[in-house]
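Q&A log
Question type: sequence-to-structure
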Amino acid sequence: MNVLVLGATSSVATELCKLLAARGDKLTLVARSTEKLERIGADLGASVVRTAALDFTQHQRLAELTASLSSETSFDLVVVAHGELGDQRASERDFSEFTRALDVNFTSVVAALLPLINHFEERRSGHIAVITSVAGLRGRPRNYTYGAAKGALTLYLQGVRSRLYPHVAVTTILLGPVDTPMTTTHEKNWTFSSSASVARGILRAIDRRKGDVFVPGWFRLVMALVCALPESLFQRVRAFSAPPEVP
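Response status: OK
Response body:
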């Protein structure tokens, strides 16, 4: 299987690439860091057929890259795994920080996907899997800018999935908290999973061609309870309503 991975140097994506390589898939990897891509390429060996590095906020260049790659290689699967938490406090006071959060977590994903969506639609086959976040299901003071971007992405993917049905699968990975470099400053609790464990869950969801899927799976129940709470009660629960700590 030919696989394109965008954001391949994230901890979760790297673990997923290891699983894909182990079963013989051929990988094209795109990320921001040339150095990290070289390390991953060296680790995965012949499974990596091509790498490309660029800033994902350069939307036009990103769209041109994915269009070029899809014209050269008939991808069976595209995985989108890039994003960043950003600075919630800064996004509340600085519009440029707010727009950066949307650029990285939503707009850049759409820029990358548009050529691929149209290519798969014309071909009438393929599979798109995108990592979003449970943060996009209900706004909390500690991450609502990031959550808004991920929520928009989740809604966008729902529309794409219905548009491409039944020929092209679109899997939305609603990821719970993961212990990665992106969350290194966050206080860890029982809800955090490891990159390796969520990568296995993501691969299972992809293989089953699921639509919206929570990883880990038990987060579906957690978020059902969180989303069902009346706002008057939600705002009284510190775990949900506490703002981010000031460094």
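Response note: DSSP finds ten helices and seven strands in the chain.
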